[in-house]
């Protein structure tokens, strides 16, 4: 777990240290890719808590979701279909669902641990 | 868990962290740029408006010069003289001279037992009566609380205030008039209505050597009264 956090911090530092920023036209695609990645990350945490975490599924899901979300948004923009909004809604919805499930699992664990202590 | 997985996860985390930081920086950069663009657009608009104003001022100056050239001579001078004569009559110029000042304000307490509260207040009819008496006595300019009395002036009660030229005023009401002081004083001091109302509210008249009355500065709208062509 700690290696992931260290990696994240390192990535943020590199991102801040790099003198250039990405072109402004990339911003919307990158934002939706990040949202997809966030969704996968929370999905992974949820799967881990439920005990059915498969590393390969997680990694492929994260990468492919991010790339596909950005790609679909790009294609949508080219076609005049606001797929950005659709992806925003879908990923946002899933993130909150996953967060709710994670909270439930953590609460369950906590109550079980207290029962065991008695 | 295979051995290479932590490495893979950390690589992904580095990538995600990098992209997040880049995204935040890009968005802040865009916001900055948009603000700059807005500022530039606004300054361009201001400059454009200023240029337009200058051009309009130039046009007005040129038109005025052309008008003087075209209609110049005795005709224009006659019109100027006419306007100069009519403006004071239309209450559009400040005037000064000897006159009187009438101050009316609500009574602080009831003068008589069981007196209705309404009798303690200055009403529009009091102001109207004062204005009428001053006009009859030869006033040449009248103002109530600085509002010049004109051909279209209205004076009426609206709740606790009196609207003069549609501007609400509360007590006290100060009526200034330029005109012959002696007849105006006499008219006010001998009028039975004023004498009666003086028993209820405060009405004070005084002679002034130098009254200055401001011009009418409201909107002039005579659209309903079309001038009649003389001899037409």
Can you lay out the helices and strands and say which pair or pack?
The complex is a heterodimer of chains A (118) and B (232).
Chain A: H1 2-17, H2 27-50, H3 55-79, H4 83-117
Chain B: H1 5-71, H2 74-89, E1 95-105, H3 124-136, E2 141-144, E3 147-148, E4 155-158, E5 161-164, E6 167-169, E7 173-178, H4 181-190, H5 192-198, E8 202-213
Antiparallel strand pairs in B: 1-7, 1-8, 2-3, 2-7, 4-5, 5-6
Report on this structure.
The complex is a heterodimer of chains A (118) and B (232). Chain A is an all-alpha fold. Chain A has one domain. Helices cover 85% and strands 0% of the residues of chain A. Chain A is built from four helices and no strands. In chain A, helix 2 runs antiparallel to helix 3 and helix 2 runs parallel beside helix 4. Chain A is globular. By secondary structure, chain B is α+β, with helices and mostly antiparallel strands. Chain B folds into two domains: 71 residues; 120 residues, Alpha-Beta Plaits (2-Layer Sandwich), CATH 3.30.70.1880. Chain B is 49% helix and 20% strand. Chain B is built from five helices and eight strands, in the order H-H-E-H-E-E-E-E-E-E-H-H-E. In chain B, strand 5 and strand 6 form a beta hairpin. Chain B is elongated, with a radius of gyration of 35 Å. The mean pLDDT of chain B is 88. At the A-B interface, helix 1, helix 2 and helix 3 of A face helix 1 of B.
Brief description of this entry?
The complex is a heterodimer of chains A (about 120) and B (about 230). Chain A has about 120 residues and is an all-alpha fold.
Subunit organisation of the chains: heterodimer
Q: What is the radius of gyration of chain A computed over CA atoms, rounded to a whole number of angstroms? A: 18 Å
Query: Which bin fits the share of residues in helices of chain A?
Result: over 70%
Q: Using only CA atoms, what is the Rg of chain B? A: 35 Å
């Amino acid at each position: 777990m700690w290696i992931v956090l260290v990696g994240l911090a390192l990535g943020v530092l590199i991102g801040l240290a790099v003198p250039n920023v990405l072109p402004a036209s990339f911003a919307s695609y990158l934002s939706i890719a990040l949202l997809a990645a966030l969704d996968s990350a929370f999905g992974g945490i949820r799967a881990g808590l439920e005990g059915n975490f498969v590393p390969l599924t997680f990694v492929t899901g994260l990468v492919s979701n991010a790339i596909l979300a950005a790609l679909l948004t790009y294609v949508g923009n080219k076609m005049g279909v606001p797929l950005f909004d659709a992806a925003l809604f879908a990923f946002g919805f899933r993130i909150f669902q996953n967060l709710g499930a994670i909270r439930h699992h953590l609460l369950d664990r906590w109550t079980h641990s207290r029962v065991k202590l008695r | 868990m295979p051995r290479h997985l932590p490495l893979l996860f950390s690589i992904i985390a580095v990538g995600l962290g990098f992209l997040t930081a880049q995204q935040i920086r890009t968005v802040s950069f865009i916001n900055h740029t948009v603000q700059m663009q807005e500022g530039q657009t606004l300054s361009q608009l201001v400059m454009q408006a200023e240029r337009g104003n200058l051009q309009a001022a130039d046009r007005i100056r040129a038109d005025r010069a052309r008008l003087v050239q075209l209609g110049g001579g005795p005709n224009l001078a006659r019109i100027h003289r006419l306007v100069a004569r009519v403006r004071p009559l239309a209450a559009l110029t400040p005037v000064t001279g000897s006159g009187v000042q009438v101050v009316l304000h609500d009574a602080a307490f009831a003068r008589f037992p069981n007196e209705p509260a309404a009798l303690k207040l200055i009403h529009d009819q009091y102001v109207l009566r004062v204005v009428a008496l001053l006009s009859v006595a030869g006033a040449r300019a009248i103002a109530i609380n600085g509002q010049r009395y004109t051909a279209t002036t209205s004076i009426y009660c609206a709740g606790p205030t009196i609207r003069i030229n549609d501007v609400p005023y509360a007590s006290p009401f100060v009526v200034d008039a330029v005109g012959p002081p002696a007849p105006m004083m006499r008219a006010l001091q001998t009028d039975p209505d004023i004498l009666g109302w003086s028993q209820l509210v405060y009405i004070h008249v005084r002679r002034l050597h130098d009254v200055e009355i401001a011009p009418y500065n409201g909107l002039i709208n005579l659209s309903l009264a079309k001038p009649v062509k003389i001899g037409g």
